[in-house]
Every structure is written in C-alpha cells, then in structure tokens.
Amino acid sequence: MKTILTILFIAIATTTHAQQIYSTGTVQGVNHTYIVKTRDFPSNNPLVSIANTQNKTSGQRMKSNRLDYVDPVLLGVKINNTALNNIFKEEIEPSVLQRLAANPQNYVGLIINFKQDGSVLDVTFSTQQTSTITPRIFEKIEDRIKSEITATFNQDKIPGIGAPAYTTFNFITKSYIIYFYKLKQVQ
Amino acid sequence: MNCFFKPRLWLIVLFLTIFSCKKDSSTSTHLHTDNAGVEIRNWLALQKDSTHVGELTSHIKWAEALTLAGDSNLYYYAVPVTGSDENYSPKKICRFLIVEAQSDKSQGYLLEVLASAKEFDQHKEELIKGFANINMSFSYEGDLSKFTISGDFIESTSYVSGKLKSYSKIYKKTSSAPKAILSSGKQVNDVCTDWWLNVNYTDGTATSTYLGSTCTCGGVIASRDKIGILSVKTLCGGGGGPGSPGDGGDSPGCIHQGSSIKNNKLILAAGDPCTVEPPKVKFNLCNGLSVQQIADFQSTYNYLTTGNCLQQALTVKIEGKEINVCIGAMSDPSAIAQSTPGNLVWNQNLVFYAGTLQEELFHQVQFDYYGTNASHANVEFEAALLRDMTDHAYDALHLASSEDQDRYRAFLDRITANNTGYPKTMSDIMPTPQDEASYFSLVNAYNNQYGTGSSHHGVVDNSLKPTALLEVTNLSKCP
To answer: Where are the domains positioned within chain A?
Structure first.
C-alpha cells in the first residue's frame, strides 16, 4: 500500500510540475518571490503576468519630465535579440522546450524596463496560465537578462530640448516576445 | 541669325569691338587672332561625339572667333554659335563655344550668356571669361551657364548687381538598384544614377532639385530640354535599340526612368528599372530642404518602396497623389512630422525615419477614407498598429501600463496569427462584438497613455473602425 501511495504521490507531483497552472497570487523561486496576476482580457489562452516582488517600477508607467509624447523611433531601444533568445534556449530544459515549441501559441512576453545607462532595471513576464516554465526557471532567466542584456538608445537630440529623448524618461521600456516554435527553428 | 550680331548692326558692332579692343589692349588681356579658329577646330577634331560635333560645326560663326588671355597662361578661344535663341526681353541668350587651353591641356564647353545688349556689347570679354567671378566690374544681372557640346548642363552662375548670387551644378548619386528581371527570366545587375540640381547661394543657403535617374539597363540617352534642365531617357534593349548587356537579345522594352522636373516637382521612379512604369508619386519639395534632407527623404522613401510587403503596398496605395514635402518647426518639439491632405511637414531638426515616414504617408490614405476631422486618437492608433505590424514590434502602447502592453501584444498576435499573416477583413480584426470592444479599448489605452494636455491626447471615436489599414493589407502581397 505504501508503495502504491508513493508511486501515486510521485505521479501527481510530476504531473503537477508538468502542467503547472499559474493563478493570481505569489509563487516562489529560489531567492525571489513573484507576483502572479491574471490578465483580464479576452483570449483563447488566458494569460498571466509574472513579476518579481522587488521590481522597482511596479505599477509605474514610463514617463518623461520634458516630453508628453515621443515617437518610439526617437527612443530607438535596441537589444541583442539573439542573446535574449539564447538565454531562454539555455535555461529551459530541452524536453520542456520541445513541448512548448509544439504549439505555436506558446510564448513568453517580456516587458523589460531599462535604466538610462542601458542596464536592465526590471523584467515582467507574461505567459499562458498553463505554462510549464517554473518560477525557478523564470528566476534564472531574469537573473541572466539583468546581467547579460543591455540596451542602446537613439542619440538624436530632440529639438527644443537639446538632449536625446531617452534621457528625459524615468526608465525606458522594451516589449519583446519569445515564440518557442521560432526558437526551435533557429536552433 | 544670332543674338546681337545682326548684319545691319555689323558696322556698329565692329566699331564697338575695335573701340573695346583698343581700350582693353592696355591690360594685355585681349587678343584678336585667327589662331582661335584653329585651336577650336583642333579641339573639335579630338571629340568622339561626331554627331554633335557635326551639328555644332554647322552653327559656328568662324569669322568671329577670338582669343582672350586669362591668368597663368590660360587662354580662352571663343566663337559664337547660332541657334534658336530664347528672348527674355530685355535680355537674350548668346551662345559661345569656348575652349580653355593652358599648357598642353584644354577643355571645351558651350557657354550661354544671359545679358542685355548693352551689357554684352560693353563687357563681352568679361562675360566670356568671367564665369564664377565673385564680382563683375559692372552691375551685371544675368546668368552664365556651361553645357557640354552634346547639350548636357554642366554648371551655371547667377549675378545680381554685379555680384555672384548663386552657383548651380548637377551632381549625381549612384546607387545600386534591385536586380532587374528580364522577360527571359534572366537577372541583370543595374546601377541607377540619380541626378540633382544643386544651387548654392552666396548667403549660405542652398537648394537641390531632383531631376531624374538613369539606369545602366541598356543604352542611355541624355539631352537638355529647352530651358536647360537635364532630360533623361533610358532605353533598355529591344526593337533594334541598345541592348542590355548580357540579356541575350531579350527585349524587355524601353524604360523611361526619369525625366526633367520643373518647379521643384520631384518624381520618384520606383521599382524595377527594367519595367515601363509611369512616375508613381509626385513629391513637391519645398525650397527649404537642404541637399542632405532631400537625399535623406528620397532614400527613406525608396526604402519603403522596396521594403516588406506592407510598406510596398502603402507606396502603391498612394500612387497618383501629389504631396508637398517641407520642413519646419513643430509646435510639439518632439513631434517628427505633421500631415494634412497633400502636405507633409517634417521637423527641421530631425532626419527622415522610415517608420515615421510610413505613418505619415499612411495618414494620406486615412484622409481619403475618414476626411480631416476624424478622431486623432483613432487614426494615430491605426497608423501605429500598421507600423507595428510592419516591424513586428509592439511599440504603439509603449507608454501604457504593462497590462495594457500585454493586452495589445495579445491583440496584435491574434490578428497577425503570431506575425505570420495580416488581417484582410474587419472580421479578422474584430470577429465578435467582444473583440470590437477590445479594439476600441486599446484605442482608449493608446489615447490615455498621453496626458490630457498632450497633442496626442484626444477623444476616441468608438465607431471609427480601421478601414484604411485593411485597404493597405488587401493591396499587399502579404499572406
């Protein structure tokens, strides 16, 4: 009986790990806690956002102290997409990556907020509620993004201000998306 | 008949010439010698353009050839050339064939002198050899223009009150064109040359006018039209005409890639230079654009014409339009451009960005469908949406909350099937009433990311659907 119960427990635990469903609340990584919020808009694949509780820009919007409008091209945020993709490829187990890539709908969205020096300030993930990527993996990915990814910005000076647009903002946002089936294609 | 040398005025002219000769002889710069005719004939004999040399020779008044001495052993051998002189009363144009010789080097050109009879009679020598003088010794009002013997414009100077006002020169910019595909299926490498008239004024300002383009897709014939602007015709094989190199006798037909442009009207001949296509869009460039800005604008527009399927579709959609392109100051210093129907004003201190130019040209399409009083928020969101679809980006709501950005990303991924296609019908964008509400909710989010005082903040129209965007996607060859 003990053996059967043990097997059942392992089976349930394994299944739970593989089919983890994120819901509103908090989840624990190794060193960080993440806030999970369900996204309240129509979708065939309900989404959640996953953000480190230590994020400094939570609830804040990107704002300029000089400009009330800016064309994205004037910010000109550029990052190394290949390096970012590689982080995901390297941190997600091949078998998990394989399963994720099997469905073109599977993705992870990123909103990366950068400091004016180009270093990463905060990262917020969004993904399906049924994502099989664990909080620990998100934590590893976040740590690597913060240490390995930097941004460059458009240095054109804004007329009337005499400085590049990005220097007038509290932080600079880049929205990015990782489709796993595309990651597999470039492997 | 040529200019002021009417037969019945010969005696007067002769008298004036002799008088002038005597007066100038003290400066040792003026010579009358038969040697001028010999020098000019020798120079003509070395020219390979036998057709134009023959035609020119028949219009030369050899008896009036003269030699003028310049600085540093430079000699001007000049002879009047008859022709259909334009009358710009009270001024006229006189033509001379001039050979400049110094040591063993010589160069020849046709010089057109726009001057009054009095100016010409009294200062002929100074006008002939005074090209590009900063100051004339008299109050000259007119132009001096140089042409090749085949009639192509080289350069000109313009004078007001005896002072140099402007200097004009045609310059060319060579660029690689897309590979042309001949009807045989063969590809030929083409190089196109864009021709510009650059005018520099002595007050420091400058203008530049695009004249046309020639492409090395077969023989090229260039000729000058009657007011002296370059006219370009390009032939591209076939019909016994010049053949494209390596086309194996294929007959892709004639090309008219560029033509003379007047009054600053710019014709951008886009696309395959081996395809017979009429000019697509007329851009009227304001005088305030610098040479760099014009070149920047042209290359940016050309980038769109050869860009991805949506960018190409947009440039096709605006075919037939005439758009004034000017630079100016913006009420909002960070605004890159402002559009009204048929007009585009670009921030004078910013370069032409492809994505923004795409948005501004899309506004011209929107004007056709929504008029000029449509909700600013709706049309700007739609333009930003088209741009994100083009760039596979998610920038439209970059100042919004992370939730709104996620929502926008999910919406964009849905209508583009994760960046693999583009919506062609309204039901692709809003298949259900819930999706329609979602679309306008995003327009609201777009609007609300700007403060109420922002030039980009307005009132959302919950009935204005993105019709113009679908007009572009439907015209495209995109999936």
So the answer is: 21-185
